[in-house]
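Why does residue order matter? Because the sequence determines the fold. Keep that principle in mind as you read this record.
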Amino acid sequence: MEANSKVSVIAGDIEIDLEGAAMEVEEQLILHRQDDTWTIMLDRLAQARKDALKAAVSAAKEKGLPERGSAFRVLLETCSLERKPDQVLGAIHYLRSVEGIQDSPPRVINQLFSDAKIDPPGNLSLYLNRLRERKFLVIPPGKEDKNRFAHLTEEGRAHLDKRSTA
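Structure:
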């Protein structure tokens, strides 16, 4: 006897509510992916996430809270980023997504670690280059291959998301 599976997602006026045997649910999901329903829903969820992050950053700036060091530390703890390469990836994410900083030379990243009362990474270029090799970071064209402009790829974001659910 096969167990029932259930997938239920609501994003605005789009609702996907699937239930049945695992194989049936998978087939129904494939149909939703083919007619772009799934893509539209993911786009809406991504936009809602961006809007929520923007609102949180705006509220934090208005209130003067949280202090950047403690906010960065919370990010590291929430996502269980204990290894230095993961922390560097989290720092790039924090600087780009939360503070909106696009140019972060080593002193900016090291200062973020210091503000959070965490030992700075030391040889930052080594970590950044390894993260680029793993395809977690990319440098935009025209930035002369400088690590200070690196930003997260989809793989990098997925890695952080995976860490936060682990």
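The chain has seven helices and four strands.
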